[in-house]
Amino acid sequence: MMIVIAGGGMSGLSLAGHLSRWPVTVVDDGHADLEGLAWASWSDRPGLLDAAVSRTFDRVRVHAGGRTWVLDLGCYRYRVVLGPDLARVVRVVRVVRELAPGCRYRRGHVDLVEDGRIVVDGEAFPARWVFDSVGGPLPDPDGRLAFLGWHVRTDRPAFDPDVPTLFDFRTRQLGASFVYVLPVDPHHALVEHTSFTSGPVDDTARREALREYLDDVIGTDGHVVEREESADLPLISRPAPRRRGNVLAIGARGGLVKASTGYSYQRVQRDSAAIARSLRRHGHPFDLRPPPTRFRLYDGALLDVVAAEPARLEQAFAALFRHATAEPALRFLDERTSLIDEVRLFATMPAAAYLSAVRRRLSRATG
Ligand SMILES: Cc1cc2nc3c(=O)[nH]c(=O)nc-3n(C[C@H](O)[C@H](O)[C@H](O)COP(=O)(O)OP(=O)(O)OC[C@H]3O[C@@H](n4cnc5c(N)ncnc54)[C@H](O)[C@@H]3O)c2cc1C
Q1: Which domains, and CATH codes, for the chain?
Q2: Which of 14, 83, 229, 248 has a CA that sits 20 to 30 A from residue 133's CA?
Q3: CA-to-CA dists, residue 24 to 3, 105, 128, 266, angstroms
């Protein structure tokens, strides 16, 4: 069976690891350099590619509604995977698990993906299944997550290396904004200004916000920016059209970036495992069983409410993370809660704003 994975980024590599019993060809044109990439995520269970995790945290800091909490993660762990480690572990997993049936990495630009064939650098190849992380249609975004991050070095030991900051709202609100801090050691961290927005965000204002945060909130007493990165992630709450004949969209193209958080690493791991299971059981990759649709409704409603009133984001995050550990919030964001859990979680949120956003979405969906 000829399996081609279009794009060897996070989802393409993850799937290549999970499809270790089949020969696959991964095609990537190299425009996203794995070297500088890293994905953080939370998980409460072992996964096939866990050897790629380079850092694990059991607590996080959050600051919202005028309060700072350091929260235990309960049965979750917050983890970081670096791009080169993911690539290395996928190779090892394929060798160890299935005696390395061919996995070819081909450098090339995917021009076209169609039912039954893929065109790379102008040349067409037949394919039984194509997993596509580079092309295909995407629904209009409901919003955007804009981030500008600095990898900084500080003069004094300013960061707690054991506790990342998931969100800290003590920053300029350019849209609905918070700062995320991923420490490396007491002198080094990634400090990221993150905004839920529907329009462009001014770079000068974001740099100013990061400077203020480092000087006034963290109090670094001097820092050097070693590298800057920025990205603008479309947030899509509607399901993406994943299947086109024998082509299945994966990763961001498959709608796996969660619209209320911008995270997709763990969703992609679960999706890759489900694709492998479906191929094994049925000989096709389409038996995927997505989570209940209400979770997409919640994501969309949050984005609608925050677009109208950006200050609601801080309220919502403060309400979600108000428990003794971060576990209930993370389980909800993982889409593993029951309706009763959700009623409890939402209890302190202003119900009217969210209910009318949900009603508007439902009435649009039904015509
Ligand atoms: C800056 C940034 C930080 C993020 N951080 C996190 C995080 O910490 N945790 C998390 O869960 N999510 C994160 N995300 C969201 C999401 O998980 C990532 O975007 C993730 O990389 C998506 O995986 P993917 O495989 O869909 O896309 P990518 O990882 O971008 O892979 C696509 C691959 O396709 C290749 N390619 C593109 N076009 C072509 C073409 N025409 N022909 C051949 N090759 C092509 C590229 O070179 C790339 O390697 C982040 C997103 C961004 C933008």
Answers
A1: 3-54+82-139+236-282 (3.50.50.60), 143-232 (3.30.9.10), 301-365 (no CATH)
A2: 229
A3: 5, 9, 11, 22
Closest-CA residue, ligand 1 atom 52, reads: 231
Instruction: Report pLDDT digits (tens) over 123-155.
Output: 999 999 999 999 877 788 999 999 999 999 999
Query: Is the CB of 103 inside a 6 Å radius of any atom of ligand 1?
Result: no
3-state per-residue secondary structure call for 270-330: HHHHHHHHHHHHHCCCCCCCCCCCHHHHHHHHHHHHHHHCCCHHHHHHHHHCCCCECHHHH
pLDDT tens digits for range 180-199: 999 999 999 999 999 999 88
Cα(9) to centroid(ligand 1), Å = 6
Pocket test for ligand 1, best of 10, 27, 109, 261 (most atoms within 8 A of CB): 10
Among residues 78, 90, 99, which one has the least CA distance to residue 5?
90
